[in-house]
Amino acid sequence: MVEWNNNKTMKKLLVLAFGLFLIMGLLFRATAYADKLSEIEQQIAELSRAREMSEAATQPLEIELSRLDQKLTNIENSIEQAKQNIVKLEQSIVQREKDFTVQYAKLSQSVASYYKNLRQPSAVYMLFSSGGSSTMIRDLAYRAAVADEDKKIIARISEEIISLENDKQQVEADKARLAGLQLQVDKEAAFFRKEVAGAKAYQTELSQQIAELTVKQQQILAEKAGTFQTTVGDVPLADDPASRPDYNPGFSPVFAAFSFGAPHFKGMSQYGAYGRAKSGQSAEEILRAYYGSGIEIKKDYSTDIQINVEGYGVVDIETYTKRIYEMPASWTDNDSAALKAQAVAARSYALARTNNGAGSICATESCQVYKPVNKGGAWDAAVDATRGWVLMANGQPFSAWYASTSGGYQESYSHNGFNTPGFWDTTCGNQGCWTGEAYEKIAGSPWFYKGWYKSRSGDSCGRSHPWLTAEEMADVLNAWVVLIKHGQSDDRVTPIGGCWGGNPYSINELRDRAAGLSVGYSRVESVSVTYAANGITANLVFQTDKDSREINGLDFKKAFNLRAPGRIALKSGLFNIEKK
Question: How many Cβ atoms sit within 10 Å of the Cβ of residue 345?
Fold first, then answer.
């Protein structure tokens, strides 16, 4: 039987449940902010706090419901077993009542016989009237045995009658008791299930809103950090001396954040393919390295398929591939192995993107860079050498992604039910020889390890390099304290520099804001970085004027891109912090 012995616990649960719905009424207050990022940050913080409070209020109910469910299961099992026992007992009673008629007749006979025997002449009388002692002895023994048997029958049938009546009464009592238990447990379970279901639905709604806002936030962060997708093409190297780690900013101590690679890190690294070609690998070896040893390289795919290029009309697949401008024609090492691998990847991507020509494809780097004239030279030769070569997965062209530089780690992705590998793109095949033996470094990629401080158009927001003072790096930590450690919404935690508008905190103001929450940093003395096996920066440990502070890599990246001055930014989740 379920008993609630702790009224205080129940009251607390009810208070928590009431608080949960009270929270629901207080959530969405309209707040006007000039900067849309701060508005989104505030909404996320409010929703996150509401969800946390809701979950905190719901947790005791969930625990109690779990206990109740277990009790209910046990009770239901007991009830079922009891019901079966009752059915058996009822069936037994019916049969025993039928048998009782016979037993009752026997009982009547036994009682009559017993009393009859009691009224028989005494043994002395029989002795004087008997014809012989042996006959008398036998008669006495018989009469004694009959009387004893009659007594046993009377006792047994009497006990059976009592047992039968008791069982009947017990069956009725058990039925009533079990019905009461079932009703009580169902009532309690219904209450808790209703409370938890309502809270869970509310939490789900909050999570959906948070997820939607996070997408918007990421879009704004991408805009502020100047994140973009690019390919190598035939453009000049997008590097400058100030973005390299050997640059001397003219003062110290200084810190700079260097990204490994840009932009998306999936599929084939173009510079990595070039480094592999320089190391003697063939086009097939390069393709299997980046797309997986299990990828099918079909070498007789139809060349009659027409591709509809947005803005340029329809061309056949081979002509289309010759007009792709995604890799320098000068990359001819090892019989143009990198160019051949690129031709196969570009052809496969176009076929997969257009569903074998049924759709269209854009002509920009959002798809593949296409121009209305053949590129010619070594590129045309590489396309001809791989004519009809297409990457296939489960009978369909595989969407062969590629990008300029991954920073030494290729992330896995899926298409047509096929997964590409995730791996360190190094000569040793693991993290052990990264960064020195990364194929992209062998190829000389300017994006392999770079400090970013300009937008794509070249605007640097008044900064001539990506290096920060010890005070400016501490300012990033204070942004982390406010926005991430304490989850505060604050529209003034934005980059200093004037190119983003709004009213950003000064360094002193943000330090005071962080100090009001827990700790405000004035200087960073040093930093160490740890990398994870899956190709991201796992965590950073900062030695500061206040303490030693460990920060998750992705959390630091967010705080850095929201507060680092000007357009200084991290492009990758795989990064390092250098000090001079």
Answer: 33
How many whole angstroms separate alpha carbon 430 and alpha carbon 421?
A: 13
Per DSSP, 419 falls in state E
Q: How far is CA 368 from CA 200, 348, 399, 412, 502, in A?
A: 45, 12, 12, 20, 37
From 433, 437, 494, 430, select the one nearest 217 (Cα to Cα): 494
Q: In the numeric block, which tokens belong to residue 17? A: 């449940």
Q: Is the dihedral of CA 510, 512, 516, 521 positive or negative?
A: positive
| Three-state secondary-structure class, residue 469 | strand
For the domain 27-225, what is the CATH code?
A: 1.10.287
Which residues sit opposite 578 in a β-bridge?
256
Q: What is the DSSP letter of 243?
A: G
Structure-block tokens of residue 280? 């003697």
The residue-averaged pLDDT of 428-447 equals: 93
CB-hemisphere CA count at 13 Å for 549? Answer: 25
Instruction: Measure Cα distances from 260 to 192, 290, 386, 438, 464 in Å.
Output: 51, 18, 32, 11, 21
Q: What's the pLDDT score for residue 497?
A: 85
If you count them, how many residues does the chain have?
580
What count of other Cβ atoms lies within 10 Å of the Cβ of residue 422? 15
- As a whole number of angstroms, the distance between CA 297 and CA 348 comes to 10
Is 256's pLDDT higher than 90?
yes
More confident residue, 229 or 431: 431
- CA dist 357 and 375 (Å) reads 22
- List the structure tokens of 4: 């609630």
* 308 in Cβ contact with 397 (< 8 Å): no
Contacts of 80 (CB under 8 A, 6+ apart): none
Task: List beta partners, residue 530.
Answer: 539
Provide the residue ranges of all domains of the chain, joining segments of one domain with +.
27-225, 241-258+451-579, 268-443
How buried is 253 (Cβ within 10 angstroms: 0-12 exposed, 13-18 middle, 19+ buried)? middle
* Residue 146 neighbours by CB under 8 Å, 6+ apart: 113, 117
Q: Rounded to whole angstroms, how far apart are CA atoms 262 and 368?
A: 17
Sole residue written with tokens 């706090």: 49
* pLDDT above 50 for 544: yes
State which H helix or E strand residue 361 sits in. strand 360-361
- The two three-digit tokens of residue 175, written as one number: 């039925």
**Tokens, residue 207:** 């999570």
Count the helix, strand and coil residues of the chain and give each as a percent rounded to the nearest 5. 55, 15, 35
Strand ranges in 130-262 using DSSP code E only, listed in sequence order:
254-259
Q: Per-residue pLDDT for 354 more than 70?
A: yes
